[in-house]
Amino acid sequence: xxxxxVQCIGFILDGNRRWAKERGLPKLEGHRRGFEKLKDVVRAxxxxxxxxxxxxxxxxxxxxxxxxxxxxLMDLFREMAKNDLRELGKEGVRIRFVGQLARLDADLQQLxxxxxxxxxxxxxxxxxxxxxxxxxAEIVEAVRKLADDGAEASEENLRARMWxxxxxxxxxxxxxxxxxxxxxxxxWESAYSELFFVDPYWPDFxxxxxxxxxxxxxxxxxxxxx
Length: 226
Fold this sequence. Notes:
By secondary structure, the protein is α/β, with parallel strands linked by helices. The protein has a single domain, classed as Decaprenyl diphosphate synthase-like (Undecaprenyl pyrophosphate synthetase, 3-Layer(aba) Sandwich). About 45% of the residues lie in helices and about 15% in strands. It contains seven helices and six strands. The two termini are about 30 Å apart.
């Protein structure tokens, strides 16, 4: 399937814990299944010739969750960085990390840096992994950099100082799990994104759902304020 008018899709990976609860599984298992699903979806997006995909994996607010859950998620990120993301890297996926990465443990920061370096020359698709990410925090940091640089206050200059400065603004943002809000995901970049909210939890998201959304997107008229 060729979708030349789509340059970037953003995903809010919601519903992992509820998916596990409805199946009588530990909520932590829901997170593990969610990470497995992410690999499948990145490959599906790549097969549709879409060059960028952004995934909201862990927000700045998520640091406030139970210590056990946060610790488990950090261990999952370590496992992903050591294995799963490198597996995607061997398939031509470039990995970029976006967020307050300094809040991660030192060993995880090192893994993140290694994965970015190892995949920097890949060109088939770029995965923007949003970890310890918050849209408001991103804007505040960009404003701080703008002031430090003594640059003129303009949209262009501010955008250039965003964590995701090199990522195209997402054409589409998809949130699973039935909730209908952005929860701080790419607040600046999503100004003209087409939003899709679907009921299935993230581990149940399928290629058929993706194709249905792409088909609906193609039928929408994007006037960009005109």
